[in-house]
Amino acid sequence: LNASVAEPGMTRTLRLRWEDRKDNRKASSLGPFDLIVGADLLTDGSACDGLRRSIRWLLQGKAEVILAERNLQGLASSCATDMREDGWQVLESAKTKPRIDALVNGEAGSEALQPERIITHFMRIS
Q1: Where does 1-126 have alpha helices with state H?
Q2: Residue 25: CB partners within 8 Å, gap ≥ 6?
Q3: What is d(CA 77, CA 93) in angstroms, rounded to the nearest whole number?
Q4: CA 59, CA 44: separation in Å to the nearest integer?
Q5: pTM value?
Q6: How many CB atoms lie within 10 A of CB 79?
Q7: CB 68 within 8 A of CB 41
Q8: 3-state helix, strand, coil in the chain (%, to 5)
Q9: I need a labelling partner for 23 at 20 to 30 A (CA). Which of 54, 56, 102, 121 fits?
Q10: Measured distance CA(91)–CA(108) in Å, rounded
Q11: Can you give the pLDDT of all 126 residues of the chain as single tens digits?
């Protein structure tokens, strides 16, 4: 959301591939933004670097980023630490789902469901 546009409250979506400079230039020309919302963006170690770079280009002042991530291999937690080192304020909250009893390929218990994929990691970056 960009409160300084002629139509405050207008919402617009845009495909933004962190590693694509053309996407970043296009997004930057539409901003700066007050709020960026995303989910499942941190899928590998390099994704955090691109996210951090893009946030620096797209946000100003009291802007915020709200993310809902699966903390795969600790990537979301690690990225939050990197963002703090960059000077951002980062609030984190992790929510685990209740135990699931199931059979997956004949295996019993939630271990077969890859429990690291069940943890939702919320981040608020400002």
Answers
A1: 21-30, 45-58, 75-85
A2: none
A3: 10
A4: 23
A5: 0.70
A6: 25
A7: no
A8: 35, 30, 35
A9: 121
A10: 35
A11: 445 555 666 677 778 887 788 888 888 888 777 888 888 888 887 889 988 988 888 887 778 899 988 887 888 889 999 999 999 999 988 766 555 566 667 766 555 455 555 567 788 888
